[in-house]
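Thread title: Can someone regenerate the structure for this chain?

I was given the following input by a collaborator and told the matching structure tokens would be attached. They weren't. Posting the sequence so someone can regenerate them.
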Amino acid sequence: MQEQRLLDSLAFLAKNCNDTPWLGVTRFSWSAADRKARRYISAELEKIGITAHTDGIGNIHGIYKGKTDKPAIVIGSHLDTVKNGGNYDGTYGVAAALEVLRSLYDKNHIPERDIEFIAFAEEEGSNFGNTCLGSKAITGQISENDLKSIRNKDVSAWDLLRQFGLQPQNLIHEQVDPQKILAFLEIHIEQNEILYKKNIPLGIVTAICGMRLYAIRIEGRSDHAASPMLGRADPMAAFAEIAYSMEKLWKDGVLPEDFSCTIGNIRCLPNAGIVIPSQVDFTIDIRHIDIETLEKGWKRIEAMINAVQEKRNIRLTVERLSASGGTAMAEFVKNTFAQSARELNAPVHYLQSGPAHDAASMGHNVPVGLLFVPSIDGLSHCPEENTSPEHLILGAKVFENAVLALAEQK
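Best answer:
Regenerated them for you:
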């Protein structure tokens, strides 16, 4: 592989395919910045003789042909970011996968099996709050009706795809065929501080935590801030009680110690300093490695929410926005990563992934593997997100060797 070319690709995407170059990286799927990134990826694939094609949800595909029609190796990650994110989340996996194909082309090497590149759309869920939408769409976890019902305040997912020039009606014919795929491999920054604190350059993921995202709406009665406290139907007070009580469930041991619950988004109406709100909308994100424990934990949180509703004069609705994760990595892929690391004398640490990744969605249909490199101070989803060039390069080399080892299997 060409180390500088890998780093240059990351720098180009961060600088030139970014709606907020003054503050981190903002590249939502189906945006102007996303369109620039797509042109770059397609052009780079074209340079090595691969004609990219885009499916109905916006995933970019490219196939490096092998000698046979045996089940292929699929590699990639996501192009989109959160608002004001960093240079590497998702993008590193895309650039590393692209570099694998470039390296094969440079050597004029034809592997035994096809290697398919995918740059996934909408992994972050920034447009609609539904994570891994691109990978879910091609693994049968999102239907046409789902895309029509998923919406933000302005537009449905279906209509946004059509406005961007995509053809979501074709997704029914663009599903992953498990019979034609040996494994999906992804490399990503860790988004935690485990590897960084241990000073270990590589992490082999054993499983991806299950994740559930819920939207909660509390409706009360708006009034002047000078109105009497007695008799109020204040949705913000109800929200505060729910937020405090959810954390207390964890502190009191009702939720397991390794259970995560987070309020990540909040909006109130009319959002005026001298007015009691009429409505508060917020999200709750819950995570655990065991799906049964995850669902039981949500039932306890939901019971608490319902208890708050019963004792306050408010209306409350709950909607599940997305579900992902709870995916074990394939043993033979983990072993291949480990062997590739040994060949480069690189220490590894086995760990679980809290964040969801496209590997989790793909893992519903095919064997998958996920490799991590450290994030400095564990930071991610922020402008300060950073990984040393040495770790980016080492991870890409181990990833490349693992991909080739599997692609050469007869």
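Residues 189 and 373 are 5 Å apart (CA to CA).
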